[in-house]
Amino acid sequence: MTDIKLIAIDLDDTLLHDDLTISARAKKDIQEVVDKGVTVTLATGRMFAAALPFGKELGLNVPLITYQGGMVKYLDGRIVSHQKIPQDMAQSVIDFLHPYGYHINVYVNDELFMERDSSEGRRYVAMTKVSPHYVDSFERLWDEPTKLVIIADDKQLEELTQPLEQRFGDRLKITKTLAHLLEVTHRKATKGVALKALAESLSLGFENVMAIGDSLNDIEMIEYAGFGVAMENAVPQLKEKANYITCSNNADGVAEVLERFILTK
Question: What is the spatial distance between Cα 200 and Cα 167, in angstroms, rounded to a whole number?
Fold first, then answer.
């Protein structure tokens, strides 16, 4: 296998177990990989504030890829890149969504805003551990958001995706990340674009990069990386693109990959 110098790891359903924790085994392996001189980063759809605790837990000191690639930022707050949705376009999406009545999250300057309290919003807060700001209405946005998230059940989001793609898909990135989350970001906000930029900043080529993920929003980075890894619990489309399929997130698939391909050398 090529000489891997940069590894990007997704969080939810990849590095994190279903209880949203990182195993002691994975933490130990990541530290050993870093000690070998390999750069390890997180590549997640989560907002930076929700990814930051995991970056600190792992002792990482490199930029984290967050918001699907919409924000790349160091743990100390330095921003490498930030792709925002133009305000008028974001307003058009929200106006389009309002008749459906689904819960919407709006992310501005790495802060989470909700229009109302809801069971969907409370579950999201419990998962991300980020406190939201409640606003009276999204009828008039006050800034350019980094991301919009629609929270509903799987069937509702499946029915929503096509009309949303038809209306905005040529200008925005629309991605199903979890069964109940549909995310809208800037067209250039992908993990693949962000990972490529990070690799080039380190004078590395794609052949020096490993990417590990499970979902549709991981496809671009799996395609870019010289060695793409899909979790056993990954969606079929990602498994088709991967060079290797590891164990599930609950079976420490990330640790298995690191031990097999990096730490045995």
Answer: 34
Show the domain range for 115: 87-186
> Which sequence positions are flagged as catalytic?
10
- Considering the domain architecture, whether residues 48 and 134 belong to the same structural domain is answered as no
Beta strands in 5-75 (DSSP E): 6-9, 39-42, 64-66, 71-73
Q: Is residue 176 included in any domain, yes or no?
A: yes
Among 86, 221, 74, 220, residue whose Cα is nearest residue 146:
86
74-77-80 Cα angle (round to 5): 50
pLDDT digits (tens, 9 = 90+) for 109-156: 999 999 877 888 888 888 888 888 998 888 888 899 999 999 988 899
The answer to whether the Cα torsion of 103, 15, 61, 57 is positive or negative is positive
The residues that bridge with 120 in the sheet, in sequence order, are none
Q: Is residue 144 one of the residues assigned to a domain?
A: yes
How is residue 37 written in tokens?
A: 């001189």
Residue 95's domain is classified under what CATH number?
A: 3.30.1240.10
- Its pTM stands at 0.89
Quick check: is 104 in a domain? yes
Residue 169 lies in a domain: yes
Q: Please tell me whether residues 22 and 151 are part of one structural domain.
A: no
Q: Which helix (H) or strand (E) holds 159?
A: helix 154-168
**Terminal Cα distance for the chain, rounded:** 10
**Structural tokens at position 236:** 């079929």
75-79: long-range contacts at Cβ-Cβ below 8 A with a sequence spacing of 24 or more? none
